[in-house]
């Protein structure tokens, strides 16, 4: 089975390093320069004290044609516009597309895609790209996947061949799967990004934890989560198990990149408006992150 990975950030490199142990993998990069480096040096995967080098075929995104048996779209949500435009201009519809974005703001965009089967996923791994061909696997987790449109059989076939050391799980409902991940991202990411702390600080510092509880309460109400205590315990557990991790939103701000705040809190704010609910904390963190994205510079509203 041939696998295409569109995107060569931390997640793209992480998936390429592991999936290439079982599949023929092509990685599609934003720049030709990165493709040259990956082809020359391979992908260096760092996990604990271990180091492995995997060679894959790297090509610039301009050469992607969606011809692989499954294409994994591992870019930020705000980068999907160009990807979707390219998909809809391909001479033939891609067979199977798996989208791995945070939040749920991208789901409407997926409705416009010409493809036989569309899958979505949520990732529990922690990863950091250190240079164009090196990725550090900082936190082991699960990749949850589900059908957004089309048939499930190709997804099951793919997952059945994934290396056991990089587990996938096929879920029945994409909405419930993404809501669970959205809840986690909506609380941990903005808090750690504004406070400039690792995930564990949110539960180890009693003052930070009080804010975590309040933000969680707002998020849980808008997402209409059942058994909120169980969700809160899951959130606390994630903070403990990923205590030394720096969230993706924090890393984006540190690298002076755009964040996925619109796909995460922006989506929840839109849901709150539909339901006529007030969300002072969610709204505050949303605008704080938007302000940080501009480096604190004045922006006309």
Automatic annotation (TrEMBL):
Biological pathway: Cofactor biosynthesis; (R)-pantothenate biosynthesis; (R)-pantoate from 3-methyl-2-oxobutanoate: step 2/2
UniProt entry keywords in alphabetical sequence: NADP, Oxidoreductase, Pantothenate biosynthesis
Catalytic activity, reaction form: (R)-pantoate + NADP(+) = 2-dehydropantoate + NADPH + H(+)
One Pfam match: ApbA_C
Keyword Metal-binding: no
Residue ranges constituting the Ketopantoate reductase N-terminal domain according to the UniProt record: 3-148
Residue intervals of the Ketopantoate reductase C-terminal domain: 178-293
Protein known as: 2-dehydropantoate 2-reductase
Phylogenetic placement of the source organism: Bacteria, Bacillati, Bacillota, Bacilli, Bacillales
Gene from which this protein is expressed: panE
